[in-house]
Amino acid sequence: MNMMVFEYGDHAIVVDCGIMFPDTELPGVDIIIPDISYLREIRDRIRAIILTHGHEDHIGALPYVLDEIDVPVYGTSFTLALVEPKLMEHGMEESVVLREMKPGAPFDLGPFHVELIHLTHSIIEAGGLAITTPVGTVIHTGDFKFDPTPMDQKQSDLHTLADYGRKGVLALFSDSTNVDRPGITPSERAVREGLSEIIAGAKGRVLISCFSTSVHRLQIVADLAHQYGRRLGFLGRSMDQIARITQQTGKLHVPPGLVAEPQELRKLPRSKVMMLLTGTQGEPMAALPRVAVNRHRAISLDPGDDVVISARVIPGNEKSIFRMIDHLYRRGAHIHYEDGSQPSVHVSGHGSVEELKLMLNLVRPRYFVPIHGEYRQLFRHMEIAQQVGPGAEEVFLLESGDVLEFDEEGARRADRVSVGRVCIDVGTFDEVGDVILKERRHISEDGIVIPILAINEHTGRLEVPPEIVSRGFVPMDEAMDLMESARQVIFKTLEVSNTEEIADWGVIKEKIRTALRRHFDQETGKRPMVLPVVLEV
Amino acid sequence: MNMMVFEYGDHAIVVDCGIMFPDTELPGVDIIIPDISYLREIRDRIRAIILTHGHEDHIGALPYVLDEIDVPVYGTSFTLALVEPKLMEHGMEESVVLREMKPGAPFDLGPFHVELIHLTHSIIEAGGLAITTPVGTVIHTGDFKFDPTPMDQKQSDLHTLADYGRKGVLALFSDSTNVDRPGITPSERAVREGLSEIIAGAKGRVLISCFSTSVHRLQIVADLAHQYGRRLGFLGRSMDQIARITQQTGKLHVPPGLVAEPQELRKLPRSKVMMLLTGTQGEPMAALPRVAVNRHRAISLDPGDDVVISARVIPGNEKSIFRMIDHLYRRGAHIHYEDGSQPSVHVSGHGSVEELKLMLNLVRPRYFVPIHGEYRQLFRHMEIAQQVGPGAEEVFLLESGDVLEFDEEGARRADRVSVGRVCIDVGTFDEVGDVILKERRHISEDGIVIPILAINEHTGRLEVPPEIVSRGFVPMDEAMDLMESARQVIFKTLEVSNTEEIADWGVIKEKIRTALRRHFDQETGKRPMVLPVVLEV
Prior knowledge:
The structure is a homodimer. Chain A is α/β, with parallel strands linked by helices.
């Protein structure tokens, strides 16, 4: 859910616009986007949204934000190619202005002079931003690593970082994701060796699952398929889409005749088949998880086929991933994943400690702000920055909503702005409010009980005995006795209430709610939601 | 949720009786116990429940199972000491027979000759079982590692394993938990070095959180407190309880004057304070998580205090643990946990690959059955067993409910027995049935809508317009319009129904449910539970 605002005078730019995925603590929520109350406040000042790269946690909230904040979006050609289908899904492709940006081609947005600095990451065409203002230059790294041997030979632009460092940088905002890892993150090229070893030894099909946006990895797999004389298929909606876009735009190089449709693959000998699939996180509707339970239309596994999961386990997804892996084992496949005991089938896209130090040493900022990480990671990044001499004048450990103010004299914390998360039900494009979520959680803990009273509008008396329905509370067989006793509680509550109380629905409902709550707690130890309804007949 | 049944003729013994902890996919469920339908079937034949050690996943379901299956329970002195408070909690301490077992003191249960073989594990007094029957001896390892330098100098009993191996073992059932780890699991002693380094450098308080049942580790911490001239406090219910039991029974050796009550600790200089706390998994009510948010009655943290989390991250708990760690950082504490970049503050209690091979080579079983692990782990353990020469005649990859049959001729799979899980709400001791869970999940996804119809019992007509209440569905402001349109749908449904349909509540309820479901899906894209109620007035 990355998003940062830079302001100068009456002008503002927004860097990144990401989503987060919820866990099961938020039932019925599909994605989480940033609360943009503050953007609404400064709506008139915003000049642009600038995207550092095309991962969901940097671009996913665009359709929701652009719906309210109508500004141009800047990104690299590949980043914008990933944004386009999102806008189309929401019918916004006509109304939104997309502007391509390139390293070495800086541009101005009001008082901001913005230069994209190419940096390596797991996705192609990623970069940091050097934003120069009248009070100085700030550098925002985006997500990065210093891969010395990237697949496309486009190393991180150390020279431009060094130039800025020499000229003087006011503040550096730097990625903290892998601050817990010592040393240097291995090059993407290491994956080639790991995969090559597996494919060389494979007798049956080879299925490789990775993030569809990891175009470097798609290239590695395509190269290896060619080298080992296998045809290559793309399975899963986003894999198919990105394979198409990248081939059309020359970002993925595939020799003619290599790619095969799923139908063709089915007819080929197993030893001639290789596939790239979605579903590394065990998402139930993605390609690999469906293959795992033998419910994929186009492909089934035979014992001895090789399956590679070339991605990290995103925290929270352990259960669905390992469930999928267990199913793949039941199919008799050889499974290769990051468990430490295999040749490397995945490397991270984020720099480790020594790379973070290199960034600090190149940029030599006056102020340092660790970003992209949990508090403990920002804290460690702060400690690292303090070790690196000559060192920044001050490190600011900021949390979401904190404001940092720069002027001729220096930097200091200012007031906070309002931030938070907004839960979205994708099916409806709707926000799922806190009240709704609280209700769902309450009901899902102990169920719901609805006592219904038909009260005669003239006499104020019950017309018929109260009806009580419940769900998610107690099993039917126990419910009978319990509901009978609950009915007695309602009678008793009405008996001890005077006519005025009964006439006031609010009062009588609350009295019944309280009495039943106590009754259920005593009888069952449970605290269902109790929701009395009064019908005046 | 470990449990295994061994049967011979009309006799059966049950090995272990564990629970599992649920994740948020099972709302309102506190623990999961095994479905014991099969134990009920063979109730009259069961001679005993034998416990290999005292961890929850081996003993936690005892009160629930003993409630129905009344048999003696065998365990080591420490294991039984952990069982006793559980029985007391359920008022069963009088009715259950506990029998202590010791290594080197075999006993008979009908045709079963049972010998406990001491093996090292993270808990003291753990072991494997050699169960000799007329058709041969089977060995069940329980959880184990081969720690060459355990804290209490009680190494795993290699000699007895070797004796059985020489005499000939029919089948080995062996722990697969760490089959993914190459080499040998470090000795518990390694933790002493890691902790010692931290304490030597500590200026303020030192708080160490570990599982209270890890008595070796409690001993290490007590020894280090003594060595570094600090007083030691025990915080958290189970930590306090186990510290007391183990000191009384001589299993934990603490010099006089070392232990301090929390009140005393508060008055001591910070550099004289050390504490052992519960809460390694971020459980909200345990000691360390409360300290982290500064809500512990007896203790608060100051910047510069050291906090050690000396335990593994149990999968599924990542979020609550890292949330706690972030809070500890906010308190300004130095945090030490297993993140790979620290001196070792935790080692596993399960043997790695080379230890699994050693077990296989010592026991040399005719048949091998990997246990304790997910399918992928059992699979890998099978592969390892196949590598180890001379090798078992056959490896059986069994899943829960599978039955393996042995006789003079050999071993083979037999019919399965019914197994499964039973969800328990601890507050009520009650089973939470599948129907209830399904209802809760449905409601928690999209909410619930209850349309209420008061129908005149004579005319079959509505007495008043239908009342509709909903929870967890749409926000109040949208609900008004939506409920009005839903009311129209109900009117229309009644209009097109004939009198017989209306007279039959089942039919009319179903028609309304179907119509409203379609209506809500069209209008909101959501599928709440729709629960019509008809009141005859």
